[in-house]
Amino acid sequence: MGTFVITKRISDMYKYEFVSRKGKPIFISKDFELRFECENEIENLKTKLEDCFFMQFKSTKGKFYFKIVLQEKEIAISRKFSTQLMMQKSINEIIKYGNLSEILDFSVELDVFKD
Q1: E strand map for 1-115
Q2: Closest Cα partner for 96 from 25, 18, 38?
Q3: Tens digits of pLDDT across the chain (115 residues)
Q4: Does domain 3-105 have CATH number 3.10.129.10?
Q5: Between the N and C ends of the chain, which has fewer C-beta atoms within 10 Å?
Q6: What is the pTM of this model?
């Protein structure tokens, strides 16, 4: 089963990824200024997964990818896949396990080596 992972970019913006059960990122969200916005969109996506539209594309280099559209708003873009079958398997995993997936938050900075 996949997992939603929240992280913080170097620019101090938050993002989330959906990571497959094998640990490979499937898609990455847009940036969010606040962490709770990120969490809210994940919960919204999980509850409305059946309403999502997966726009499929082929890059100029022959790689396949998709964008997730929910309520006429693009919310995420996938990584590049070498075949259309691999892309479709990832979409199927999102549809099948997305609403059951847990959320891991790695955005909090922990100072392990305090002075």
Answers
A1: 3-8, 14-19, 25-29, 53-58, 64-70, 73-78, 102-105
A2: 18
A3: 789 999 998 898 999 999 988 889 999 999 999 999 999 999 999 999 989 999 999 999 999 999 999 989 999 999 999 999 999 999 999 999 899 999 999 887 655 556 5
A4: no
A5: C
A6: 0.86
Pairing status of strand 102-105 against strand 3-8 = parallel
Nearest to 54 by CA among 88, 96, 17: 88
- Domain residue spans of the chain: 3-105
Question: Are residues 26 and 19 in contact, defined by beta-carbon separation less than 8 angstroms?
Answer: yes
Residues ≥6 apart with Cβ < 8 Å to 77: 27, 28, 65, 66, 67, 68
The angle formed by the CA atoms of residues 73, 78 and 8, to the nearest 5 degrees, is 85
**How far does Cα 25 stand from its chain's mean position?**
7
Tokens at residue 29, please?
């969200």
How far apart are the C-alpha atoms of 69 and 32, rounded to whole Å?
A: 17
Q: Cα separation of 68 and 29, whole Å?
A: 9
